[in-house]
Specification:
Length: 433
C-alpha cells in the first residue's frame, strides 16, 4: 500500500488527528525495522482504498537542536513516504519550527498536504487562511474535538497518494535494483560513486520530472543499471559536519530502508570502528541484503592485513554470511567485482525454499541433533515454512520453546544447506502446546 507520513511538532494535535484518520482503529500492523523507536505504521482504509499511515513521532530536540531534528525528520519522511502530511496548530499559527519544516517539505518531489488542527469553531477558519503562507497549498481545517474536516482531508490524501507505492519491492523485474551506498564519513563513498559512474562512462541520471535535487543516481555496473539511492549529498561531496551526526545517521537509515541491498563501505586502512558496526546493524535490522566493501586497499600493507584478519574474527563474525570485496576507489582496483557480489546477495534475498524441501531438510537435522530438553520436556519441531522473502523469513512450529543457541544452530545449518550468502535470514518459532 502507498505510504503517508504524518509530521508535526509536539502538541499540535497530531495524535488526535491520526486517530481520527484511522477511525480510531489503532492496531499497529507493522514495525518499520530500524526506526521503530521514532515511527509507528498503521493500516488505514478510506473509500475502499488502503494506505499505510506512518506517524513519525514528536520532534524531540537533541544535541543538534530542534531545527535540525525537525529538518531531519521531515527529510526522512520525504524519502520514505509516497506523500507527507504536515500538521500545524491553527490556533497558534505557523511557528518558526513549522516554517523550517515547510521549507524542507517544499523541496520534496512527493505531494505534501497541510492539515490545520484545533479548528473547533467557525471563527478559527480565518486563522487557517494564514497558513497559506507556508507555501504548501491549501490548509485543510480539521477539528479533533468533533472530527470536522477529516473526511475532506482523507479525500485529499487519497487523491495525492499514487496507486502503487514507490517502494513496492513486490514488483520485481521492473526497473533497476536499489542500492544504498553507506558508511562512516571519509571512507570513500563519494570517491567510489564517482569512480563507478565516471569510469564506466555511464551517465548519472537525474530522477525525471523533479524540481528538487535528484536523490538517486542510475549507474551502470557490469552491463546492468543500478539505482544508487539517496546519493545527492555524495555527488556534491557535501561533507557532514560533526555536529550533524544525528542527521547523517537518519540519512543512512533512510537510504538503507529505501534500498534492497546495502553496500557498507569500510576503510581498510584503519581499524574496524564502532560506527562501521552500527551501520552494519542498521542493515541487519532493516532486513536488507548486505555487501561489505573494504576501500583504500592501496594503503593496506602486510601488518595491516594481519590486524584486519583478527578484527574480522572479533567484530564481524555476526555477519559472516556477507561477502567482502577489497577495493580501491583511488586506483580502481577490484571495483568491477562489486556487481557480481551484489547479484549474489540479491538472489539470496529473493530466494524461496519450497516447503517440501525445507521440511525434508528439517526432519534430517532434527533427527541428528534434537533440540535441548527444557524443564524435563523434549520440544518437538513439527513443521517449517518460509513465510516471506526479502529477507527470507522462516516460521517453525514447535511443541516447546527453542533456545537461542539452538535457533542459531538451525540458522547455520539452513545457510549451509540452502545458501543465503549476502542476505539476513529470520527464523521465528511459534509454540503450539
Ligand atoms: P566519503 O565521506 O565517504 O564520501 O569519502 P570521500 O569519497 O570524500 O573520501 C574521503 C577521503 O579518502 C578523500 O580524501 C579521498 O581522496 C580518500 N580516498 C577515497 N578512496 C580512497 C582509496 O581507495 N584510497 C586512498 N588512498 N584514498 C581514498
Amino acid at each position: 500500500a502507498p505510504v503517508l507520513a504524518v509530521v508535526g511538532r509536539p502538541n499540535v494535535g497530531k495524535s488526535t488527528l491520526v486517530n481520527r484518520l484511522l477511525g480510531r482503529r489503532e492496531a499497529v500492523v507493522q514495525d518499520i525495522p530500524g526506526v521503530t523507536r521514532d515511527r509507528v505504521a498503521y493500516d488505514a482504509l478510506w473509500n475502499g482504498r488502503r494506505f499505510t499511515l506512518v506517524d513519525t513521532g514528536g520532534w524531540e530536540p537533541d544535541a543538534t537542536g530542534l531545527q535540525a531534528a525537525v529538518a531531519a525528520q521531515a527529510d526522512l519522511a520525504m524519502q520514505t513516504a509516497d506523500a507527507v502530511l504536515l500538521v500545524v496548530d491553527a490556533s497558534v499559527g505557523a511557528t518558526a519550527t513549522d516554517e523550517a519544516v515547510a521549507r524542507v517539505l517544499r523541496r520534496s518531489d512527493r505531494p505534501v498536504l497541510l492539515a490545520a488542527t484545533k479548528v473547533d469553531d467557525d471563527r478559527l477558519i480565518s486563522d487557517t487562511a494564514a497558513l497559506w503562507r507556508l507555501g504548501l497549498g491549501e490548509p485543510h481545517p480539521v477539528s479533533g474535538l468533533h472530527g470536522r474536516g477529516s473526511g475532506d482531508l482523507l479525500d485529499a490524501i487519497l487523491e495525492a497518494l499514487p496507486e502503487t507505492p514507490r517502494d513496492d519491492f513486490g514488483a520485481t523485474g521492473t526497473g533497476p535494483r536499489r542500492v544504498a551506498l553507506v558508511g562512516k564519513p571519509n571512507v570513500g563513498k563519494s570517491s567510489l560513486l564517482n569512480r563507478v559512474s565516471g569510469e564506466l562512462r555511464s551517465v548519472v541520471h537525474d530522477v525525471a520530472g523533479t524540481t528538487v535535487d535528484p536523490v538517486d543516481s542510475l549507474v551502470e555496473l557490469d552491463g546492468e543499471v543500478w539505482r544508487f539511492v539517496d546519493t545527492a549529498g555524495l555527488r556534491k561531496r557535501v561533507q557532514t559536519a560533526s555536529g550533524m551526526e544525528y542527521y547523517a545517521s537518519l540519512r543512512t537509515r533512510a537510504a538503507i530502508e529505501a534500498a534492497e541491498v546495502a553496500v557498507v563501505l569500510i576503510d581498510a586502512s584503519e581499524p574496524i570502528a564502532e560506527q562501521d558496526q552500527r551501520v552494519i546493524s542498521m542493515v541487519e535490522e532493516a532486513g536488507r541484503a548486505l555487501v561489505l566493501v573494504f576501500n583504500k586497499w592501496d594503503l593496506v600493507d602486510e601488518d595491516r592485513r594481519h590486524a584486519m584478519k583478527r578484527e574480522l574474527e572479533r567484530d564481524l563474525v555476526r555477519v559472516q554470511w556477507a561477502e567482502r570485496v577489497n577495493v580501491s576507489a583511488l586506483t580502481g582496483r577490484a571495483v568491477a567485482k562489486i556487481a557480481p557480489v551484489l547479484r549474489t546477495a540479491l538472489a539470496s534475498w529473493d530466494k524461496r525454499i519450497p516447503t517440501g524441501r525445507l521440511n525434508g531438510w528439517l526432519s534430517d537435522v532434527i533427527a541428528a541433533t534434537p533440540p535441548p530438553v527444557r524443564g524435563g520436556k523434549q520440544p518437538k519441531v513439527l513443521f517449517a515454512t518460509q513465510a516471506q522473502t526479502r529477507p527470507p523469513t522462516f516460521v517453525l512450529f514447535s511443541t516447546g520453546f527453542l533456545e537461542a543457541g539452538y535457533r542459531r544452530f538451525l540458522e547455520r545449518r539452513l545457510r549451509e544447506e540452502f545458501g543465503f550468502t549476502g542476505s539476513p535470514v529470520r527464523i521465528s518459532v511459534r509454540v503450539r502446546e
